[in-house]
Amino acid sequence: MTPPPDVGSFVLRDATLDDAAELLEWRNDAVTRAMSRNTTAVSDADHRRWFARTLDDPAKLLLVGCIAGDKVGMVRFDRLASSTWEVNINLAPGHRGKGWSHALLAAALESVMAAHRPAEIVAEIKPENVPSRRLFEAHGFRRIGSFGEVDRFVLSCRG
Fold first, then answer.
1. Which one, of 43, 45, 75, lies nearest residue 60 by Cα?
2. Considering the entire predicted model, what is its pTM?
3. What single string gives the DSSP state of each residue in the chain?
4. Segments making up each domain of the chain, as ranges
């Protein structure tokens, strides 16, 4: 197992339009597409429209994790109901397997809970995506069942 990274200079920030191209590259990566609900490649034009709408939507939070100025991954939260958010995470392909997913998810969960204090955060993960399953379980998510091609995991943030 890879030792955990030194997270001392890790920064989580809001995404900006300047991040659009890299996040599209990560989104269209073969591994990302295979583990996504939508496995088709996304065009640049479609992505840029979606990206701009996402940045302007108060029901969505798009965060980017950086280490020494290098982008390591992104986390997106979509509000499903007044106290429920869905979380999605994607690492830059060159940063997979180095432990950054834990730093990224921990910081993102702390950020969304501080700002919005949701009662529940859900993640939908394909059964074959073992690294994501382990990641979310390590951060307190529990599997509540299968829904179509994905398993749903929930983190309760009450109290």
1. 75
2. 0.91
3. -PPPP-GGGEEEEE--GGGHHHHHHHHTSHHHHHHSSS-S---HHHHHHHHHHHHH-TTEEEEEEEETTEEEEEEEEEEEETTEEEEEEEE-GGGTTTTHHHHHHHHHHHHHHHHH--SEEEEEE-TT-HHHHHHHHHTT-EEEEEETTEEEEEEE---
4. 7-156
Residue range 37-64: mean pLDDT, rounded: 96
Topology of domain 7-156 in CATH is Aminopeptidase (3.40.630)
Q: What is the pLDDT of residues 60-112, one digit of tens each?
A: 999 999 998 899 999 999 999 988 999 999 999 999 989 899 999 999 999 99
Calpha distance 145→124 (Å, rounded)? 10
Q: Which amino acid is at 134?
A: R
